[in-house]
Amino acid sequence: MYRLTCATALMLSTALPAMAEGVVNIYSYRQPELIAPLTEAFTEETGIEVNVAYLEKGMVERLQAEGDRSPADMVLTVDISRLSAVVDAGLTQPVETETLTTNVPAQYRDPDGNWYGLTTRARIVYASKDRVDPAEVTTYEDLADPKWEGRICTRSGTHAYNVALTSAVIEHQGEEAAKEWLQGVKNNLARKPQGNDRAQVKAIWAGECDIAIGNTYYMGKMLEDPEQTEWANSVNVLFPEFEDGGTHVNISGVALTKSAPNKENAIKMMEFLTSPKAQEIYAHANYEYPIAEGTEADDIVKGWGTFTADETNLMAIAAHRAAALKITEEVDFDG
Ligand code: FE
């Protein structure tokens, strides 16, 4: 048993040559195209070498299995539910520095310092330019109105992005009203939930539906892709709000692992990621909204217009995750 544990630890340390000075090790759910420019800029500025293990799933399980011997110093991921899964499993440690708390607004970080948001993305409505007057799209609550019957497309209700939106509805309206809302949205669907956010915009372009729920940055991504430009150009980006105010946003973020062998370097990296320099890289590479004050979104993103973000702390949204999944099943949203 002991031998096996040793062998496992050895294997992992070979995969990620850690534990020396001048190194920081990251487990990332975010993609190499986005992270590489950030790590290169950090190494250039500090001389600290960055190793990244890009994971598609199983981050919590891997950190748990590695325990104190984990080479990982920090984790990068999108979505508050994925960040809080790492925190809830007891795999992080709190950190608080003036740079972090100055650069990251309070609603986008854990009050205890276990995670920090790095970028935001709004979950908005893509609406057909031909068939929807932008003024028709008002609130999230309105998406349950029968006027949209047979006109809405979305991905699975159990996808993290939609679970967070439903959780936000619970936060604003309570669970009972949220369930009615979700049933109403389901009644308005043009087709069973399927595909990713971009597939919904394609469906609008193809005339299958008139509005879709999706994340903002996909508009930028579609405009970059010759095949998808037409889809993007067939829709307007519209920012619904909750009846009591604010557009739903989620984050990408970072957390320091409990066992971080290179803690000081990791904190330097965390601070770097919230700095104007790194925030600009994020803003231009992935069309997300930077969070550090004084940094601006990409011109394409600014072209979609401004909005007021919901001020709910994302911890509150994460806390409704189980309830959101439950009502999604109860209304058989994907069925
Ligand atoms: Fe995404």
TrEMBL record:
CDD domains: PBP2_FutA1_ilke. Coiled coil: none annotated. Keywords: Iron, Metal-binding, Signal. One of its GO terms (molecular function) is metal ion binding. InterPro entries: Ferric-bd (IPR026045). One of its GO terms (cellular component) is outer membrane-bounded periplasmic space. It comes from the Bacteria. Residues 1-20 form the signal peptide. Fe cation binds at Y217, Y218. The keyword Calcium does not apply. Belongs to the bacterial solute-binding protein 1 family. This is Iron(III) transport system substrate-binding protein.
